[in-house]
Amino acid sequence: MKNIFKRAISVLLSVAIILSAFCFSASATSEAPAETAAAVSNVTPAIVVPGIGMSKVTFFDENGNPIKDENGEMETWTVFNLYTDEIMDNLWRIIPRFLLSLLLQCDVGLTSALKKYMPSLFKYAAHDLKGEPIEKNVAPLTYKFPVSQFDEDAKGYFYRSLPIQKYADKIGEDNLYVFNYMAFSNTYEEADNLREFIQLVKQQTGSPKVTLLPVSLGGTVANAYFDKYSSDNDVASVVNVVAALNGSDMVADILDEAYADDADKLLYGELLPEMIGEDTGYLVNIALRLLPRKLTRKIVDTAMGVVIETVIRNTPSFWALVPPDRYEKLADKYLSDSDHAYIRSLTDRYHNAQKNVANKVKELTEERGVNIFNICGCDLEFGKGWTDYQYFRFFKSAKGSNADGIIQISSTGMGTDSVPAGEKYPADRTPAGTICCNDPSHNHIYASVNASTCYLPERTWYFVGQHHEIAYNDVAVGLVCKLILGEISDIYSDPGYPQFNGSRNTKKIVRDYIPDMQKADLSKLTPEQREKLEKAAKAANDMMENTTADAAECDRITKDFYDALVECGIYTEEQPSKSDKFKTKMLKAISDFLNNKCGQRGFSDILLFRKY
Same domain, yes or no, for 448 and 374? Predict the structure, then answer.
């Protein structure tokens, strides 16, 4: 369907997925301090291969040193650093064209101005026809030493991304490394860099092998590494954490412009207020009608073309997120011309390797003795489970999907078959593909998931109802650490970590509530207040000692803890004023009225009775 609002969403979401939720460069390094602490014995060093948003990027000078301002600070970002200078310098050209277009309700040079100046916004993310960054002075901050030698800021950032402080002493920070890399880059170059990094870790630790911990997008780097270098025999174990091992249908939907049938209704309904706040969301719903439908369509088509050409088309790591069964069609659409022949050769190689992933897993596990484990979230539609993911509901794959909100379970779960989220897997269903476990005494079916189809049914764990941001499910994090330590070898090793578990998000408790309580002066509390606060804290700690995850229980305990902090004066709960409540109510009423009575059209379309 080619209506304007579906096209509008394509632009918003193409950028949003890059910023979500999916880097190593030789010039962007920090050297190790001279001394290192003693490593924990009998632990294979672990290398985290992070996902999108986990690697900081900055500017470097010609000598490979980070550029700092007069205060000694670096400008850092994780995915996008939008360059606005050119747009701002040319606002005097763009604004009059916008105003004339608004006044005349037609394109008065507005789209040509966007096409000319909008690409500059993405100059730090743009790639050339070799799949290389155009801006050569931009690179990730990398650390050629373990977490034990990170400075306070770097260590804090790492633990916020992967909160394993509780297990750091058992693993040993000298055994923890982070392989940072550009989120959007050449996947096979990153595989080369990962190989070098592995050699570095082996040299520093004296260990003959390492454990890899790919997270989300990190799964694509690991795939490319094993495609090229599995014969190195340098990896003892792999712990995949919601890893994009077989792409995401959301990425394919973006390139395929495949949108949900109710995308228009979602856009003009509750999604924007949920995503960006009620007042702003309702205002945007109303403001979308200021331009006629055809003009908005032309603007969005132009913007979409800029995003694809500048950010997506020449970036191999973006193509690594396209599922192999949808790759050929999309590659033919965007990479079939002679100019993109080299990039097509890179992406073809990656997807040919993906087609052979079952044999690669067999080679690694049976011939090379690599222990591979998968930790997944499941039983959510795309866009569910986390406020920031709501925009994925605009895509066609959202309905009837089974995912962690961003990546389908067949990808993170290595071939796991499923029925739509919320449904029950039928006993008589015959799944496509190979059944990898035929032992009738093994029950690998739970809720909507059939784990017997997974390539590693004995070494794959599922957190039902868990969103992609699994790092703040403390049970999942505990499982990761036990796998790193070798304390769990399969789904039968520890009854406290069954193959199928629930979900929970202890982020606020771990990151905010407990630390803020510990820092607060409790001497002035009444006995009743102290008792309530201590009871709430104990309930939270008791829950986190229990490895059975329950989202409803976690939400209740989190709320009780927050209420206790408010009652004790540690937190101040601000209530909206009567005027703010009235404003929100009025904006919602106007938005709902226009949506219900006028449909998805511009004001001029309504006045002229135009239909599309």
Answer: yes
Contact of 47 with 197, CB cutoff 8 Å: yes
- Cβ atoms 99, 286 nearer than 8 A: no
Q: Hey, what are 583's tokens? A: 């404003």
Domain shared by 205 and 104, yes or no = no
Class of residue 459 by CB neighbours under 10 A (exposed 0-12, middle 13-18, buried 19+): buried
Instruction: Report the Cα 524 to chain-centroid distance in Å.
Output: 43
Give the Cα separation of 177 and 213 in Å (integer).
Answer: 10
User: Whats the size of the chain, residue-wise?
Assistant: 612
> Does residue 601 form part of some domain?
no
Same domain, 484 and 561: no
From 503, 531, 551, the end of a domain falls on 503
Q: Are 45 and 209 in contact (CB under 8 A)?
A: no
Could you list the residue range(s) of the whole structural domain that residue 395 is in? 1-73+135-281+311-503
pLDDT digits (tens, 9 = 90+) for 157-183: 998 888 888 788 888 999 999 999 988
| 365 & 228 share domain | yes
To which H or E segment does residue 517 belong? helix 514-519
Residues 203 and 90 in one domain: no
Q: How far is CA 464 from CA 145, 375, 468, 502, 504, in A?
A: 36, 11, 11, 5, 10
In whole angstroms, how far apart are CA 326 and each of 137, 254, 268, 319, 369?
A: 34, 12, 30, 11, 32
Residue 572's contacts (CB-CB under 8 Å, 6 or more residues apart) are: 566
Query: Do 559 and 478 share a structural domain?
Result: no
Nearest by Cα to 450 from 392, 397, 510, 500: 500
pLDDT digits (tens, 9 = 90+) for 420-448: 999 999 988 888 777 788 787 787 899 99
The confidence band for 337, taking pLDDT boundaries of 50, 70 and 90, is: very high
Distance CA 404, CA 442 (A): 25
Pairwise CA distance, residues 377 & 298, whole Å? 39
- With CA atoms as reference, report the closest residue to 471 among 194, 166, 70: 166
Rounded Cα distance between 144 and 89, Å, is 40
Total count of domains within the chain? 3
pLDDT in tens, 523-562: 888 999 999 999 999 999 999 999 999 999 999 999 999 9
Q: Please answer whether residues 207 and 342 qualify as being in contact, where contact means their C-beta atoms are separated by less than 8 angstroms.
A: no
Tokens 């000598």: give the residue: 63
Q: Which residues of 190-212 are buried (b: 16+ CB within 10 A; e: fewer)?
A: bbebbeebbebbeebbebebbbb
Are 455 and 517 part of one and the same domain? no
Q: Do residue 44 and residue 182 come from a single domain?
A: yes
SS3 at position 239? strand
Q: How far is CA 436 from the centre of its chain?
A: 29
**In sequence order, what are the residues at sequence separation of 6 or more whose Cβ sits closer than 8 angstroms to the Cβ of residue 468?**
21, 216, 242, 377, 385, 386, 389, 404, 405, 406, 407
CA-wise closest residue to 212 among 231, 195, 228: 195
**Residue 392 reports pLDDT greater than 60:** yes
Residue 331 main-chain phi, psi, to 5 deg: -65, -40
The three-state secondary structure class of 235 is strand
